[in-house]
Amino acid sequence: MLVDISSGSRQPPPTQRSAGTLVSARGIELHGPWGHVFGPLDLDIDEGGVTVIAAQAGAARTALLMALCGRMRLNGGSLRVLGTERATHVFARSAIACMNELDEVRPSVTVRDMVTEQLRWNSPWYRMIPRVKESGVRDMCAETFGDVELPPLNAFVDDLPELQQLLLRIAVANTRRPPLLVVGRMDKIADDAEQASFLERLVALGEHQSVITADVNATDSYAGVRTVVDMHGLLGAGDIGVRTEGR
């Protein structure tokens, strides 16, 4: 069965699903213009907490993460997420962050610009939203950042430490707190202490959402992580010719 990503209403209907099941995939596969990307794959993920998909970085891993939150058109197999096989419905009930294919930030963008733009995006078209002050950054970011220092209002996002950059991208993408949050990669952070802090913040978010992220490592020693799914040997580098859905 093909995953339906056709245009139409993004408002999901009431769903019935087995308690505790977030993702159920059978035989899912993807092909790009230049060949095979991944699959066929079977995958099961429980609801709640943080799940780490362990696989080498590349287009295949990226494409799988996008598919799990309704941003990627599959070529075959059946994929049920949040109790539905309609990818448009999954799209409406999920957020995705730290995925350059979707939310890469231009070097000239400041923290103020980024937060203000998201507030305007969330607001009705007729409402005037002024540029935010420090309190606006705090309101949007405090829960995601936790004990991590908030970024300065007028700093360029590209100049922030990697940890602050990624947490800011999560905070902006996750303003509506949907049931599912997909975070592109935690192995982008080279510093071990910052990576531990990043994971700690994902675990905190996972107390109220299901969080799926990815790492090249397959260790089971991540503090607070519910599940590590080792997909080494199943997900290769993949193919760059994959199609993504717009915002």
Could you describe the 3D structure shown?
This protein is of the alpha/beta class. It has seven helices and eight strands; from the N terminus they run βββαβαβααααβαββ. It has helices spanning 59-68, 87-92, 100-103, 111-122, 134-145, 162-173, 192-205, and strands at 21-32, 35-46, 49-54, 76-81, 94-97, 180-183, 210-215, 227-230. It has a five-stranded parallel β-sheet, with helices on both faces. Helix 4 (111-122) packs across helix 5 (134-145) and helix 5 packs across helix 6 (162-173). It is globular, with a radius of gyration of 18 Å. The two termini are 25 Å apart. Mean pLDDT is 86; it is low at 1-19 and 239-247.
Poorly predicted runs: 1-19, 239-247
Task: State the end-to-end distance.
Answer: 25 Å
Number of strands: 8
Query: What's the mean pLDDT score?
Result: 86
Q: What's the layout of helices and strands?
A:
Layout: E1 21-32, E2 35-46, E3 49-54, H1 59-68, E4 76-81, H2 87-92, E5 94-97, H3 100-103, H4 111-122, H5 134-145, H6 162-173, E6 180-183, H7 192-205, E7 210-215, E8 227-230
Parallel strand pairs: 3-7, 3-8, 5-6, 6-7
Antiparallel strand pairs: 1-2, 1-4
Helix pairs in contact: 4-5, 5-6, 6-7
Fill in the keyword field for this structure.
28% helix; three-stranded antiparallel sheet; five-stranded parallel sheet; globular; alpha/beta; disordered C terminus; 7 helices; 247 residues
